[in-house]
Amino acid sequence: MKLVITMSRRFGTGASIIATELSKRLDIPVYDKAYIEEQLNDRMYESEAEAIRKLAEHPCIILGRCASDILKDKMNVLNIFVCADKEDRIRRIMEKENLDYNGAKERVETTDEERASYYYEHTGKTWGDVNDYHMILDTSELGVENCANILMQYFEKLEYI
Length: 161
Description:
With 161 residues, the chain is of the alpha/beta class. It is built from 8 helices and 5 strands. It has a domain at 2-84 and 129-155: Rossmann fold (3-Layer(aba) Sandwich), CATH 3.40.50. The chain has a 5-stranded parallel sheet. The longest helix is centred in the C-terminal third of the chain and has 23 residues, at 101-123. InterPro entries: P-loop_NTPase (IPR027417).
């Protein structure tokens, strides 16, 4: 399998759970903001874009960091956007971060705004535009636990795995 998966997501959708499950099943690494920033701090790469291009030379899952846009010209890349109803995301963050409703709501809204700004600043595009992704997964409708199964069936059908 030579597939690179980019996964953009709204905050609180459970995308990191999906990525972790796919990583186990496909036996490929997941790279997130912390990992990529560590590579930059260690002076392994000049920029996030350079780090992402280098990481994408091998099968992997990249969470966020505008990877879908950075890798848009590569043939072996599947760009996924994970969304969910706002109320579901708030409840998930309340549980995950032990926050009350208002604290979780503020965290969801602030993080979404930061991600949208970051994406626009680095790509000039609107974050979450369906035209920039091959697949949209709604964890409110599909369930976080089902999304990895859906993706695995898709990969098998297209003979990626």
